[in-house]
Amino acid sequence: MEKKNILPIFSSYHLESTFYDEVFKGNNEVRNTYTELFKLFNEYQVEDFQMLNEKAKVSFLNQGITFQVYNKTTVEKVFPFDLFPKIITASEWSHIENGALQRSRALNLFLHDVYHKQQIIKDGIVPLELISSSENYLKQMIDIEPPGGIYNHISGTDVIKHSDGEYYVLEDNIRCPSGVSYVVSNRVASKRALFGVFNKYPTHSVANYSENLLDIMQSVKPIGVDIPTCVVITPGIYNSAYYEHSFLAKSMGIELVEGRDLFVENDFVYMKTIYGPVRVDVVYRRIDDAFLDPKVFSPDSVLGVPGIFEAYRKGNVTLVNAPGTGVADDKAIYTYMPQIIKYYLDEEPILNNVYTYHCSRPKELEFVLNNIDKLVVKPVDESGGYGISIGNKLTKEEIEKVKKVIKENPRKYIAQPIMALSTHATFIEDEKCFEPRHVDLRTFTLLGKDQSFVLKGGLTRVALQKGNLIVNSSQGGGSKDTWVLK
Amino acid sequence: MLARVANNLFWMGRYLERTEHIARFINVNYFSSLDAPNETSQSRQFVLNSILRMVDDEPDNDEFLDEKTVLFDTVLNTENLYSITSCFRMARENASGARDLISSELFESINKLHHYINNFDTNIFLERGLDEFTSNISKAISTIKGKIVTTMMHNEVYNIIMLGVHLERANIVIRVIDTKHQDAMLTREEISYKTSYEWTTLLKCIQSFDMMKRHYKKVPISKDTLDFLILNPQCPKSVLKCLKNAKCNIDSLNKHDNLASAFLIGKITAEYSYKSIDEIETSFNDFIQKIIREINYICESIEEELFGA
After folding, report:
1. pTM of structure
2. Above 70 in pLDDT, residue B283?
3. Ramachandran angles phi, psi of A269, nearest 5°
4. Residues of chain B contacting residue A256, judged by C-beta atoms under 8 Å apart
5. Highest mean pLDDT of the ranges A59-63, A389-393, B16-20
6. Chain A residue with the nearest C-alpha to that of B255
7. Residue in chain B nearest A251 by alpha carbon
8. Which chain B positions have a beta carbon within 8 Å of A246's beta carbon?
9. If you measure CA to CA, which chain A residue comes closest to B97?
10. Yes or no, beta carbons of A246 and B112 under 8 Å apart
């Protein structure tokens, strides 16, 4: 089936052989998974797409499904949504799901080890300096037994499809991975826009995330508590992810609290209600470690709750995720994931890792400095796509600058070959047609006491600028609905 | 319910009500003055002065008021806390702070109005948009209040919102009465206080003109108007009705029968339930000061007792 014969809005869709395109095969044929969708698209004109696109945008804006960007003044923005969904077959999904779960379990065991015996270091698998030099390693967590034995209750694993058609993990996010609210709202929007075709695809629901999250939270309740009171804590209405925080609390039917709503007395945590204090047992915190408790961490934090860490240490409250998980989603630790999985689970890694050079190792540093134009350099402890430089996009002066920055603090940087993120058909408003754009996929994995859950779907993030490989929303990325087939 | 969130809900209710009343006051005053029977009531300076007094920004005696400036200041100026835009922004911020508790439908209706206000062109507003803008705000707030009633559980969340709505309504109705009472005094050389055109305007500002005519079956005069808007237990906007509604709301929250605010609202409601308009009219200014003080006192008591403020 020639693609150009299908629709004029695909006429400027140029496939590049260096990338894997998820919708079209090399000879312009539509991949099997997408043929039904194309039948529907055949009936549409450009104006129809524009209208649907506009309708979705207005609906997101009116519902307040937005995020805030800081740029001198705070601007409320709709997370750009693309109507063309990413569709994943059942077998492909089972590979991703098993892989994401395997990594989350391994990371959990790794965290327990890091904060207890440190056997993996003693056995020479992971070097000590990687842990001790990490800004996210919290010595306050040493010897603490988190309820249910879980550190990373919620993990966001970012995967991409490389030019070889294989999935690779780009990074594990186990501090406060965000984006799940958009998964749910994208589904609502895509069902409305594409109802004619949605029922032709037996797709897994994503609406069950919140009930599973609440189950997981309840499973890690402190010892001695019968029915736990669970809350979500947010930095407040001006936080960029506030919509998500309110969505989570609302869909779980639990309170959304701010630091000032909680207080600690005799090492128990209480929230201030209109009828007086009510004990809180499980806190899903969307506040970074540093701001959690001014008594233990950053003393000038006004977002946190004084004394909450001591209550946690005594087992009187559960923090989800546990403090100090950041040590394991450090990009330097990432490179040891295959060994970490093997060490704790005695399994081969299901999902591939991208080969990584450590700038902390002199030989690798030398290689990196000589090959910056071919590599992606990332700071190990930043999130949101900040501080990343992509070698082939840099000018000579910029390359020299990056070199200087790396040399000043080699521990802070890793480098990876430039990964060829797959492309996916994306409606480009200005061009009024579909063009290929790079995508990745964030999956969401939950771990509780003797239970786990992987959301059958995820946030397909798309870099809306032509050729751009950074998909983060803070960097102008958008998203697509992700259909996982039964 | 969290005390902070309850505070947010209470103030969301108050600011929604305030926004609606300011929008309607400006609209009704401005347009009904155009064909008023007496000269003063028709005067632009008189109307602009009245609008500023109502939002509590009383101009100096001889100050010349520029129409566009006054309308901009009271409607769109975000630097003035009393402007419609500022009041609604506060309503939305408070709604955002309680977003997990209110229905998606309610939040969406609030958010829609927020975007409408933010996207309204200032020049169009000043040239020809006053009626469109203020009428649409009144309509949108009615929709929002409809969502409160029809999409929220009638539990403590609802009662806190409605407590805010009713107390603010009592508060702002008194301010509107006070403003129009002053206007009637100011025009009494042209037209008698008793039959002043300002009473008609007052009733329309509070959406009570039709009901009042139905009730008394005659042209509004001072005493009937004040009686209707202050003491009529069936008029949904009367001060007494607002207090009675607030009493119902606080009683639903008073589960352990120990709220001092519930006692206070009950006591003040009882006083006005057995008052006649003659008692009020003889010392009207004292009454206004007293009731404003009492409502403030109720609000402070609620904030202290329920919200820990």
Report:
1. 0.88
2. yes
3. -100, 135
4. 5, 99-100
5. B16-20
6. A275
7. B100
8. 96, 99-100
9. A237
10. no
- HSE-CB of B66 using CA atoms within 13 angstroms: 5
* Interval A49-59: pLDDT, tens: 888 888 888 88
| Closest-CA residue of chain A to B114 | A62
CA distance A300 to A291: 8
pLDDT tier at A13, thresholds 50, 70, 90? confident
The whole-angstrom separation of Cα A304 and Cα A299 is 10
Q: What is the mean pLDDT of chain B?
A: 94
Question: Is B122:B72 a contact under the CB 8 Å cutoff?
Answer: yes
- Mean pLDDT score across all residues of chain A: 90
- Beta-bridge partners for A277: A272
**How far is residue B166's CA from residue B145's CA, in Å, rounded to a whole number?**
12
Chain B contact for A257, CB < 8 A?
Answer: yes
Distance from CA of B264 to the nearest CA of A (A): 18
**What is the rounded average pLDDT of the residues B49-72?**
91
State the smallest CA–CA distance between residue B213 and chain A in angstroms.
40
Interface membership of A75 toward B (CB under 8 Å)? no
For A270, which residue in chain B has the nearest alpha carbon? B2
- Own/partner pairs, A110-116, CB within 8 angstroms, 24+ separation: A110/A328, A110/A333, A110/A340, A110/A344, A111/A151, A111/A152, A111/A322, A111/A324, A111/A325, A111/A327, A111/A328, A112/A149, A112/A151, A113/A344, A114/A327, A114/A328, A115/A141, A115/A142, A115/A143, A115/A144, A115/A324, A116/A142, A116/A143
What ipTM, to 2 d.p.? 0.85
- Separation of alpha carbons A269 and A287, rounded Å: 16
**Residue pLDDT, tens place only, A381-397:** 765 566 788 888 888 88
pLDDT band at B61 (very low <50, low <70, confident <90, very high): confident
Closest in B97, B108, B307 to A63, CB measured: B108
Cβ–Cβ below 8 Å for A246 and B100: yes
Query: What's at A181, amino acid-wise?
Result: S
Q: Which domains does chain A have, with CATH numbers?
A: 355-417 (3.30.1490.270)
The number of residues making up chain B comes to 309
CA gap A216, A451 in Å, rounded: 7
Cβ contacts of residue B278 below 8 Å, gap of 6+?
A: none
| Tokens coding A234 | 């947010």
- Per DSSP, A111 falls in state H
Between chain A and chain B, how many beta carbons pairs sit less than 8 Å apart?
63
Q: What is the pLDDT of residue A104?
A: 97
Structure tokens at B206: 């509070």
Looking at the predicted structure, is the pLDDT value of residue A4 above 50?
A: no
DSSP-assigned beta bridge partners for residue A168: A160, A352
* Residue B109 predicted with pLDDT over 90: yes
Cβ-defined contact of B108 to A242 (cutoff 8 Å)? no
